[in-house]
Design goal:
The chain is of the alpha/beta class. Helices cover 45% and strands 17% of the residues. The strands form 2 sheets. A 6-stranded mixed β-sheet has the order 8-7-9-6-5-10, sandwiched between helices. The chain has a 5-stranded parallel β-sheet with strand order 3-2-1-4-11, sandwiched between helices.
Length: 332
C-alpha cells in the first residue's frame, strides 16, 4: 500500500461514512471492500447476491464486520425507491412501470439509496461505462449549483505528490465558462484533500506564445475563473489561477522562470485544467501506465452528494482509494 493511499484511509476512518458499491459480482470490488472495512474507513453496502458474496468472503477467511449485503430484487426498499424515482422523473415522461424497472438497475438503486438518506456516497464503474454511473446521479442527485456544469476530476500521485486533473471523463469539449467552472470546482476538490490549489489552465501556449481558437478559449476561461474568484463564495479561499500555460511551464520551475517569471502558479501548479477531455484522459492514462503514477478517479464535481466512477481497468488498490475518497467527500 502506498503512502498516499494509507493517508486516505486514515483520513476516512476519522468520520466513517456509508458508501454503496453496486458491483458486488466483481472480485476486485469485494477485495477492496474487505480492505476498507478492515481499516474501518467506511461502512459499506454491497449490492449483489448475498450468498455468493458471503461464500467469497468465507473462502478467503474474511469477516464481514462493517459490510451490509443487499440484493435489490428482494429488498424491502425497492417499492419506495421506485416511487421516489417516479416522482422525480414523471415530468420527463417516466411511468411507474418504467421507474420500477430502472430501480432494479443496481446503479439506479444505489443512487436512490443516497437520495433517500440510506447511503452517503457511491462508487461504481468497474464493469460499467462512465455514462452508466453518471446518468443516474445527474437525474436523481442532481447538481449542487444549477448555473454551473458538473465535471470530473481525478487525483494523480507522482513522486508522492498529489495533483488534481480535470476534466478527464465528462465534458468532451468544454466551453470557456465550463473551463472556468471546472477550475473553481477542482480547486474546491483540492482543498477537501488538504491541497492548497495553484491552478494552471493548460494550453500549447504560455502567455501568448501561441495563437488560435483553442488558445483564445483557455485564455478567456482563465479571465472568467479569476473574476469568479472575487465573488463572496471564493474571495477568502487560498486559490490562485493562472493561464494560459504549457505543461512544462506549469510544473518545472526552471522553465517557469523563462516563460512566465511573474506567475504565482508557474513551476508549482498542483491543479491542472485541460482544454478538452481527450487531452486530459490520454495524459493521465499515459502517466499511470508508463510512469507508474497512482490515479484515483474520476470523481464527479458539483453534485449534491459524491458519486464516483472507476476505470474498468481499475486495480483493487485503485478501488480502495476511490472508496476512501468518496467517504472523505461525504464527510465534508
Amino acid at each position: 500500500m502506498t503512502k498516499f493511499l494509507d493517508s486516505l484511509l486514515e483520513r476516512a476512518s476519522k468520520e466513517p461514512k456509508t458508501i454503496v458499491l453496486p458491483e458486488g459480482e466483481d472480485e476486485r470490488i469485494l477485495q477492496a471492500a474487505h480492505a476498507v472495512a478492515a481499516r474501518k474507513a467506511a461502512k459499506l453496502i454491497i449490492l449483489g447476491n448475498p450468498e455468493e458474496i458471503k461464500a467469497y468472503f468465507a473462502q478467503n477467511n474474511w469477516d464481514m464486520e462493517g459490510i451490509e449485503l443487499i440484493q435489490p430484487e428482494t429488498s424491502e426498499k425497492l417499492e419506495s425507491y421506485a416511487n421516489l424515482l417516479y416522482e422525480l422523473r414523471k415530468a420527463k415522461g417516466m411511468t411507474p412501470n418504467d421507474a420500477r424497472k430502472l430501480a432494479l438497475n443496481y446503479n439506479y438503486f444505489g443512487t436512490l439509496m443516497i437520495k433517500s438518506g440510506d447511503a452517503d456516497g457511491m462508487v461504481s464503474g468497474a464493469n460499467h461505462s462512465t455514462a452508466d454511473t453518471v446518468r443516474p446521479a445527474l437525474q436523481i442527485i442532481k447538481s449542487a449549483h444549477k448555473e454551473r456544469s458538473v465535471s470530473s476530476a481525478l487525483i494523480l500521485v507522482a513522486n508522492d505528490k498529489p495533483y488534481i486533473f480535470s476534466d478527464c471523463a465528462i465534458i468532451i469539449n468544454p466551453s470557456e465558462q465550463e473551463l472556468a467552472d471546472m477550475a473553481l470546482a477542482s480547486s474546491e476538490t483540492a482543498l477537501k484533500f488538504g491541497i492548497e490549489p495553484k491552478v494552471a489552465m493548460l494550453s500549447y501556449s504560455t502567455r501568448g506564445s501561441g495563437s488560435g481558437g483553442m488558445v483564445d478559449k483557455v485564455r478567456n476561461a482563465t479571465k472568467l475563473a479569476q473574476e469568479m474568484l472575487q465573488s463572496e463564495e471564493y474571495k477568502n479561499l487560498p486559490i490562485i489561477i493562472d493561464g494560459e500555460m504549457q505543461a512544462d511551464a506549469a510544473l518545472d520551475s526552471v522553465v517557469a522562470r523563462k516563460k512566465a517569471p511573474d506567475s504565482q502558479v508557474a513551476g508549482q501548479a498542483n491543479v491542472l485544467i485541460f482544454p478538452c477531455l481527450e487531452v486530459g484522459n490520454i495524459s493521465y492514462k499515459l502517466l499511470q501506465r508508463l510512469c507508474g503514477c497512482e490515479a484515483y478517479g474520476p470523481m464527479l464535481q458539483g453534485l449534491n452528494a459524491p458519486v464516483n466512477d472507476l476505470s474498468r481497468g481499475a486495480l483493487t488498490e485503485d478501488i480502495v482509494g476511490m472508496i476512501a475518497i468518496t467517504a472523505i467527500q461525504a464527510a465534508k
